[in-house]
Structure formats: C-alpha cells, structure tokens
Amino acid sequence: MGCVHGRPSAPSPDHPQQPDPPPPPAVAAEKAAAEEEEEEEEEEKKPPKPARRERRARSSRSAAEAARLGLGGSFANRARGEQVAAGWPAWLSAVVGEAIDGWTPRRADSFEKIDKIGQGTYSNVYKARDTATGKIVALKKVRFDNLEPESVRFMAREILILRRLHHPNVVKLEGLVTSRMSCSLYLVFEYMEHDLAGLAASPDISFTEPQVKCYMHQLLSGLEHCHNNGVLHRDIKGSNLLLDNNGMLKIADFGLASLFDPNKNQPMTSRVVTLWYRPPELLLGSTDYGVGVDLWSAGCILAELLAGRPIMPGRTEVEQLHKIFKLCGSPTEEYWKKSKLPHATIFKPQQPYKRRISETYKDFPQSALRLIETLLAMDPADRLTATSALRSDFFTTEPYACEPSSLPAYPPSKEMDAKRRDEEARRLRAAGGRTNDGAKKTKTRDRPRAVPAPEANAELQINIDKRRLVTHANAKSKSEKFPPPHQDGAVSLVSTNHMDPLYEPQDPSSFSTVFTQEKSSVPTWSGPLADLSAVGKQKWKHKFGRSSKQPSTARAR
Ligand SMILES: Nc1ncnc2c1ncn2[C@@H]1O[C@H](COP(=O)(O)OP(=O)(O)OP(=O)(O)O)[C@@H](O)[C@H]1O
C-alpha cells in the first residue's frame, strides 16, 4: 500500500455481500479517523527514510507498469516531465497526466486548516483559509493508494469529470494541493456552508413549497448540465447537495460519477447510488442504464423535501426493493420481459404490487405529485429527463420557486453537524438525560442514515483477489473503488444484490424467493440505529394545509 491504509473492502465472489457489520460507536470512529489523519500528516512532514525510498521505487515501477498498461493514456513522456518539473508527483503524472494537464499544484502550506467539516468514505473534508487571498475554501483529502494505478485512476476520474463541468449548480473544483514528494492529494473547492441532508434533518427547519421548488430547480439544472456533458452522477442524495448562505445549491461528490455516451452500449456497474435513492433497475442488476438513475434519486429528494423525511429508508437491498414495490408498484410484465434484468427471477414478486404514490402523498401539491409520479417511474424509459422535468407544471405554475437569495440564512447544519447532535443526544441519554450543567434535556432526536452504495469495483480481478484476503470484520459496504471509466461494470460479481436471510419483509410470500422466517433486530445499517417511525413522527410536519398522516412507507419495517 502507499500512503493510505484501511481502504473499505467488499464482498468476495465466494462470500456474496453480507449485511454490514454494525458500525463502531461513532465517537470511536471519529477518534480513529482523527488519529489516522494526524498520523498521515506527521508522515507527510517526515523526510524520506530507506523504507520510504523503497516505496517510491515501487511507485515508479507501478508508474512504468501503468504506462505499459496504457493507464497513462496518450500522455507523452515530455509532458510528464514538464508536469513533474511543475511540482506534480511522478506517480500522478504517470498514471493520470490528463487530469492535471494545464494546472499547477498548490502547496499544502498555502492553506491554513480551520476545522474538519466532513468525513466521507473516501475523504476527509476541511474548512481552510487560502493564506494568499484570505478566501475560505473546502479541502477534500481523498484517500487512495498512490502505488496502485487503478486506485489513482479511480480518484482521478472525479477530477477529470469535475474539470469538464462548469455550472452554477455544480460544485467548482478550484485547484489541487500536492507536491513532488507527496503521496497525498487535496481537492480545493469553493466553500459551502450547508448540505441539504443537514438542513432537512434539522428539527427547526421545514421548507415552504416555493423553497422546495427553488432547491429542486437548482438540482435539476445542475443535473441537466451533467447529463448534457455526458456525466452521470450516480450518488444524488441530500448530503451531496451543498448549499451556500446565498441559497445556491451545488451538486457535489463526483466520486461515483461516470462518463457515458447514450449512443454506445457501455456496460456500467449496478452497484452505485446510496440505497435510499437507488432506482429499481440498479437493484435488479441493470448494467445498461442512463440518466434515469439520477432522475429517480431526484424524485426521492423532492418527495423527501415535501414529506420532511426520507421516503424509502431501506436497510438492505431486498428491503429497499420491497419498499419501492410497495410505494411505486411492481414493474409491468412487459417491463420484466423487455428489460431482461439479471436479478428479475430472484426479485419478481408472485403477486403484482399496486402503485400508491398519489394515495400515500395525497396532501402534496398536485403539480409536485405529477412530477414525483414521472420521476419515480418504474421503467426508466418513462422517467422525465432533467430538461423535461424543468419544464413541468411544478415549476411553471404558482406558487413559483423563490429566488435563492430570498432563502433564509440557516445556522450550521452539515450532515456532520447533525451527526454530532445525534451523538450528543445519545451521550445524554446514556448519562440519564442530563446535560453537562445537570439540566434535563428536553428534545433529542436520532436520525437514520442512508446506506451508501455498495462496494462496486467487484469487476476488477485485482480487487476480487485482494478481497479474498479481507476479513468480513473490516468490510464496509461502500461505493465502488476504482472501476475504469466506461468499463466499470464489464464483469459483474456473481451476486451483486443479495437476499438477506435475516430480514423478513412484511409480506414475504409475495416474493418468489423464500425468506427465512426469523425475526431479527436490524441486521444491516450504516449509521446509528433508530426507530424510523419515531423519527418520522417527530419530523413529520404538515406543510400544505390539510391534515395528514404519515406516508405508509414510514411504517414499512
Ligand atoms: N465544497 C464543500 N464545502 C463545504 N463542505 C463540503 C464541501 N465538499 C464536501 N463537503 C462536506 O464533506 C462531506 C464529504 O464530502 P464528499 O461527499 O465529497 O466526500 P466522500 O468521501 O465522497 O463522501 P461519501 O462517503 O458521502 O460519498 C460532505 O457531505 C459535505 O458535508
């Protein structure tokens, strides 16, 4: 390994995906991450030792191998030499020269870290000050193994994709921080104060219809730009929709994004998109999909903003599909036949499910319901595109979307802030509900977290081999690691979706697969355990006039 340790791993073909192990206590995880971070920083400051020299030698061997394999693309040796002279590390230039073409690296000491503001599976994100300009930025330190060309290429895909996008509703990559001797890389972004998941989870915030329209218009405009530029985001969810204090929404985290060409049939992995926002075709194993996957997620977000809570919070892939069928109905016979989805025989219910969106959300504004109906179409061919969604009567009829600048300036509400609140609440409960000053705490709330996309680079033999060595204990269900663009689903694992024998859907008989009739506590969860119905009750606020009850999906366990 290079500079990075403890990469997330995935199920092996021998051991198809198991339920995620329960997470370690969040506080311990944070502490471990902080320690890891400190170690990494200390490591970066050290002069090269013999062991480090050996690692660098291996790095150049890797680079040579990468070049041999064509991973460096058409990037000429001379251009690489120039990049190294400009301060880029050789391992980066050798493998992904195109991603850094025309740029000069910024030095780490030209930024002053202020605070850690986010932690993803592949990154730690810091608020920092550019010491030259005083500007506040976000520094995303991406985790990858600089000795593995594949890993570098996977990381660089995010950079290449971000560099081709220029839109007010897509986060802007402002630069990269590294140095010739460094084995790490920071992405520099404009700083965004909030994310939509944090705001939506805040007990004190509920959105009006013009505000929901304003956020959705920005989300769909950003998506339209991505899709028109051949980019599928593949992880649209609230925590990846960043907001600044001027009400601007920007799509962020292109770590799972992929380039696509609608006119070419390029198989892609189905193991993308965070579970709650994952469309049925991916759960059914499709490798031939398109912009519809992002539009499904956008539909989930729209319904979530109006409902005040996630609409289909599944804990496993089986449960997710079951929730989808219960709300959106099961696919038509024609779709099952036409789509030839790999997992159709396993997941096809014996009895068709009726579509219940308009019944469940009868209190939503009619134009919103119509848009949700088309975004949550079971057949992706029936889903609206971002462009057509922007023309829907949701946006063209009153009340119109408000101006972003008229949105309230919210207090800090990052998903990370919400997590901290949850941890504090748990700590208080453990301490008998008393605050530090001994006062009784009156209002606390845990919120469930979406299960991120599963490990999805299963298709790469090198990773399959490696995974055989990984114990389940450190297996963390997370998105793909480093599939090559356009081929990321070329070879799929034997079982990408899995039947969770511990989970009993409400009406298991309706699935053609036999479920073990054994009740269990929550077997698969990426975040704190929470009583979803309790969360729903607290958050559920009636915002559109008539009285309402919780949507039935909240009760689906
Ligand atoms: N430009 C930014 N400004 C402010 N905060 C940011 C910015 N970019 C990212 N963050 C924060 O850091 C978090 C993690 O960032 P990001 O989602 O890009 O990383 P990741 O490792 O891909 O995460 P994940 O595991 O969720 O996919 C975000 O949810 C957000 O709260």
UniProtKB/TrEMBL annotation:
Give, as one word, the top-level EC class: transferase
Q: Which SUPFAM superfamilies does the record cross-reference, listed alphabetically?
A: Protein kinase-like (PK-like)
Q: What UniProt keywords are attached to this protein's entry?
A: ATP-binding, Kinase, Nucleotide-binding, Phosphoprotein, Serine/threonine-protein kinase, Transferase
| Family assignment from sequence similarity | Belongs to the protein kinase superfamily. CMGC Ser/Thr protein kinase family. CDC2/CDKX subfamily.
Composition-biased stretches (Basic residues): 48-59
Binding of ATP occurs at 140
Protein kinase domain: which residues?
Answer: 111-395
Q: Which GO terms describe its biological process?
A: positive regulation of transcription elongation by RNA polymerase II
What are the record's GO terms for cellular component?
cyclin-dependent protein kinase holoenzyme complex; nucleus
Q: Its Enzyme Commission number?
A: 2.7.11.23
Q: Where is this region: Disordered?
A: 1-65, 405-457, 498-557
Tell me what this protein is called.
Answer: [RNA-polymerase]-subunit kinase
Recite the lineage of the species. Eukaryota, Viridiplantae, Streptophyta, Embryophyta, Tracheophyta
